[in-house]
Specification:
By secondary structure, the protein is mostly helical. The protein contains six helices and no strands. The longest helix is centred in the first third of the chain and has 49 residues. The radius of gyration is 27 Å and the shape is elongated. It starts with a helix and ends in a 10-residue tail after the last helix. The mean pLDDT is about 85.
Length: about 160
């Protein structure tokens, strides 16, 4: 019984602080999850666009020969084949696209990100204020996105 009393005595004055830290952690987790999902999509899109651009350049080069040289045509065809078979550019472009997508999503979610950091990294009243503001912000987003309150009416309504 003394263990239970010790635990309740330690937690009794800190429930608000722990709740604020939990809200901050949950907010950062949701923002991070959202940013990761968008970053994965952006990385694939960015790398595919770069691959298509490079492949179309080499394909265009191999299709048009300014002279009748068979050797020049084989060199151009070889360059196109090497371009199609390479994978190192896609590896780097996937990383670049991921960083672009992640940072763009963090930028668009800067308010909940800042409130979550504030709730997690500060102590006392500022932490509780940031946690409360994060909850209010999340509730507002829930009302707008789930219930559709505050969304402009479409052309069919």
């Amino acid at each position: 019984m003394s263990v239970l009393n010790t635990i309740t005595r330690k937690l009794s004055g800190n429930i608000g602080n722990y709740a604020a830290k939990g809200v901050g952690l949950a907010t950062l987790g949701l923002v991070g999850y959202d940013a990761h999902r968008v970053a994965k999509l952006e990385s694939d899109t960015y790398a595919t666009e770069k691959d298509v651009s490079a492949a179309s350049h080499y394909l265009n080069n191999s299709l048009y020969n300014s002279g009748m040289s068979t050797v020049a045509q084989k060199v151009k065809d070889g360059a196109f084949g090497m371009e199609i078979d390479q994978t190192w550019r896609r590896f780097f472009n996937l990383g670049i696209g991921y960083v672009k997508g992640f940072t763009s999503m963090l930028t668009s979610h800067v308010v909940p990100f800042a409130l979550g950091l504030g709730a997690l990294l500060t102590k006392g009243l500022p932490s509780k204020i940031c946690a409360g503001a994060a909850l209010v912000y999340g509730f507002g987003k829930l009302v707008v996105n789930f219930f559709g309150i505050g969304v402009p009416k479409g052309p069919l309504e």
